[in-house]
Amino acid sequence: MTARILVFAGSLRNGAFSIRTADAATRELALQGAEVTRISLGDYPLPIMDENLEKEHGVPENAVKLGRQIAAHDGFLIASPEYNSSIPPLLKNALDWVSRVRKDNGRPFKPYAGKVAALCSSSDGNFGGLRGLYHLRSVLMNCQVEIITPQCSVARASEAFDENGDFREERLRHSMENVVRTLIERALMLSARKDP
């Protein structure tokens, strides 16, 4: 059985450290035998979460599409930057909109149901975006997503990657390997429980 894992970053900025971290995670997932889908939140543009807008027009189609991506995988990995010790608005908005999805083509639909996630962060500071993961973990847990304990935070990110996009430090490589291994194991365990 192969774990299907979705990977995305919480940033769209060219050269963003979180994008490079997501790329490193994608490579490691493939090395460990997962079936990986790498997406960009930029492919799912969404208005700012607004219940008036939702009441008038319903949940945006891009939120449903992103929800379908999440639902189609056994687990997902988010690589996030840290904004003022918290979650970047792009990522928070996307997660919030997906949490509003209740139906798909008239059928009940809960994208986050039974999902497990891994969290990574990156920043040029000494904490590696770690403080933002506390809030991200809380948001996802509120959406009933199971979060694995290991996480990978990339500090001094401008120096952390080599020319191939791999981590220079062995410590970071081991950290990502552990995150990926744990995510795959837990995703397969949860997936096996759902199969008859």
TrEMBL record:
A single MF term (Gene Ontology): oxidoreductase activity
Record domain NADPH-dependent FMN reductase-like: where: 4-155
Cellular component aspect of the GO annotation: cytosol
Short name of any one Pfam family annotated for the protein: FMN_red
Stored Gene3D superfamilies: 3.40.50.360
SUPFAM superfamilies assigned: Flavoproteins
Protein name per the record: NADPH-dependent oxidoreductase
Natural source organism: Borborobacter arsenicus
Lineage, highest ranks first: Bacteria, Pseudomonadati, Pseudomonadota, Alphaproteobacteria, Hyphomicrobiales
